[in-house]
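pasting for ref. prot 1 ->
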Amino acid sequence: MAVTLSPRPDLWTLDPGVLHLNHGSYGAVPRRTQELMASLRTEMDANPMVWFRTVADRLTTSRLALASFLRTDPAGFALVPNASAGVTVALHTLPIPAGSRIVLTDHAYGAVRYAAERFARDRGAEVVTVAIPLEADDDTVVALIAEHLDNASVLIVDQITSGTAKVFPIDALVAAAHDHEVPIVVDGAHAPALIDAPAAAGADFWTGNFHKWPAAPRATAGLVVAERWRSASMPLIVSWSEYDERMPERFDMQGTYDYVPWIAAPESLEVLADLDWPTRRPQLTALVEEGAKVLAKALGTGVAEVGHAPATMRLVELPSGVDLSGGDMLKMRISGELKAEITFTGFEDRQFIRLSAHAYNSLADYEKLSEGLPRLLG
């Protein structure tokens, strides 16, 4: 490796007997954040009345910290459970006339595609899926999408695609959408902590998860809304903040929701700071690149070319003939026999393992996987 990496598994409570190579799905919450969550829950259950009287101020403090981490305007930043919820809020807010197009790509996350289909059905619109080759460069991505923006009511694009681990050129896509006077919704589920200031491009709506690379508690995500849409943007649950004129506060109070993850989330940002994340992130890039090469060599395949790969994920091609029709069963077998947690993805007629890297990983993790996986896939 070009960079010497000192793994820090001690910061997590992950089972040391398991190879944790799929941080990109559900993340992993650091030990100190878990301890804070336990303390907050103890406090809440000791006196629920006091807890719910004070929770609004705590949420404001947390929300401001998370907005600062994204380097975005706090007046347009709201807390939501996940990026899929953020996309749903955006589609609920935007005017989608009958006969118009909701444009997305064939890299879109499944739940986001379902949301587009639901709103298209409800409003008499059409979902248009733009095919983007896996290896497409930034200029090609923009050109292919721009061809489909006529009569579009909204463009939905990934910042970092989930299934194909590919970075899309968001600045250029925002410009192209606005040139066509089309609102753009950016699914930035994987972007926080992997892209600096991920919401800075000026999208109409941007949403991203904090439970992935920032390692915050699950069900913690952010929604950034451009000023023109803030007054119309409403939370998915109608509650006591319905008539609050301030957009972020409208999203804060959702009845007896469990606010502990949102309040504790900034603690995980402190963990990233202690890890010196600006230095750690390129180290993880070098780690996942080398780990992917080791696994590809063991499988007799290669690391997929995706044009612009994200900092901490890589796709390793599976050998031809591997049957993923019972994908969950195969993952359970790998989990049981190899003590390894991985995920499979597919695109067009190709199948991959999507590898992740975070601060608890070392090259030995990928080497151990490479020793046993070829036998199970054979």
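and prot 2 ->
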Amino acid sequence: MRPWIVWTTGLLAYIVAVLDRTTLGVSGLAAADRFSTGPGLLSTFVVLQVVVYAGAQIPAGVLLDRFGSKALIAAGGVLMASGQLVLAFTESLPTAIAARAVVGLGDAVTFISVLRLVPHWFAMRQVPLVTQLTGICGQLGQVLSAVPFLAVLTAMGWTVAYVSVAALGVLSIVLTLAVVKNTPDGTTTTREPTSVRDTLSSVKTVWLRPGTRLGFFTHMGTQFSVTVFALMWGVPYLTVAQGLSAGVAGALLTMSVAAAISSGVLVGVFTGRHPHRRSRLVLAIIASNALAWSVVLALPGPAPLWLLVVLVVVISVGGPGSMVGFDFARTFNPSTTLGTAQGMVNMGGFLASLLLMQAMGVILEATGGLSFDSFRIAWTLQYVVWSVAVVGILVTRRKARRLLRLQDDRSLLEGIEK
């Protein structure tokens, strides 16, 4: 029972992180009014969030390996609660942007810190499923921002709503300090001081392990499409290019969360039972994403609603698919550097998402703004990312398999000598 209590406490911290991540998205109109700015400048918040999140992954991973999950989860909670508290009271746009960056920094360390708890507290056969459950249940934070947070914002105003979120963060910090333990015996971290050169050497060693890079390209190829769709270009595409109402577009995004939750359980069970077929599953998810988009983009006009439903469901499986990347990191890295490896894996999808969001913006502006034809061209940039990811997966998978064979041969030789 203790493992589930520790994991649930860490999960609560991640749910709060997702809540903090998505509050500004649901309060966009209120933010525009409060900071006297237009939607163009407000989109800076989204880009900034992804930049900070992706850029902080490797430093967060290094700190995680040194100080452990408990310290990083608590520190992330302090950063996010502080940032939300500043947002609650400031009316200055530069201050709000800085506060949002602090929230993004706290968000960046939380997810991989919770993930690192899993292999230490659960049996290996349970790890893939619990890893998936972490990602799935964390999305409850998005529900919290869309329902109770938005209700408080509407009824009681900006300050009360953001103070309430900060207070929930403080509760999560207290529970983390009281309940979370890095491992059952409490020994996982390496607090010995290391030089910058040693740290960089360790980071390089982790990256050069083929399993780490296999996880990186797995995360890249599966996650970026649904992330870009949900965070920035999905609603404009559905409403402007496909002619749907805002209500229907919102329903499709809600369906996306439901599809991710249901498929996540299946992916977790499959990877737990068939660990040697994980890469095949990942390639199948990437292929299904590319196929669904190809069918929609090949149409000369707006797609029928049923096809858009299929598209949203298919790309939503990419979220659970990206979690397989963390399983690769766990398989091919020792526990002493697992945090660094998970940080590197987590960079893959967010780095691809950031580049695609920016590139699509450039294409849309160059081709005449938000229109059916402009979006049709912009979405084709996805094929570049898929191509890079698939090549990366195939190359690193071959190297990872070769490494496993060498390790098996070495173990067999040592057994014979004994």
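The chain has two domains: 1-181, 206-418.
The chain has 18 helices and no strands.
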